[in-house]
Write a structure and sequence with these properties.
This protein is α+β, with helices and mostly antiparallel strands and 132 residues long. It has a single domain, classed as Nuclear Transport Factor 2, Chain: A. The radius of gyration is 14 Å and the shape is globular.
Length: 132
């Protein structure tokens, strides 16, 4: 049985190799998913309510941004063993403008029964918007 930290690390590994089906496979069908931000400004921001909607998030991210670096820097496990917070950094290029950005992010996961049941992403949307 994989630990919540192993699940989270595996999810990042799958994302880095662009294996989105592997990412989706570890999400609970009723996952609560939210990228904090305004979808009217960044179309992959906002809440999603289905795995199909989340798959679209990854499609929009790939279409809108060319990610050059995506590193998890620190993983923090809550005392309850199921909540994980990850701090990291991303460098990318907005495809529409060619402008580059570097920003820090934080992701909050809840992992139960080897499935991600909650994911919330935070990052400096202002930095990303300046490049749009």
């Amino acid at each position: 049985m994989a630990t919540p930290i192993e699940i989270v690390k595996g999810t990042y590994a799958a994302y880095r190799r662009q294996d989105i089906p592997a990412v989706l496979a570890v999400l609970s069908p009723d996952v609560r998913w939210k990228m904090v931000g305004q979808p009217r400004h960044i179309r992959y921001a906002g809440e999603r309510n289905s795995l199909a909607d989340i798959a679209n998030v990854f499609e929009h991210m790939a279409a809108d941004d060319d990610i050059k670096r995506f590193d998890d820097i620190e993983i923090i496990e809550a005392a309850n063993g199921k909540d994980i917070t990850v701090l990291g950094i991303v460098e990318g290029v907005v495809r529409q403008t060619g402008k580059t950005y570097t920003l820090e992010w934080a992701h909050v996961f809840t992992v139960e029964n080897e499935k991600i049941t909650r994911w919330i992403g935070f990052y400096d949307t202002a930095v990303r918007l300046e490049c749009s």
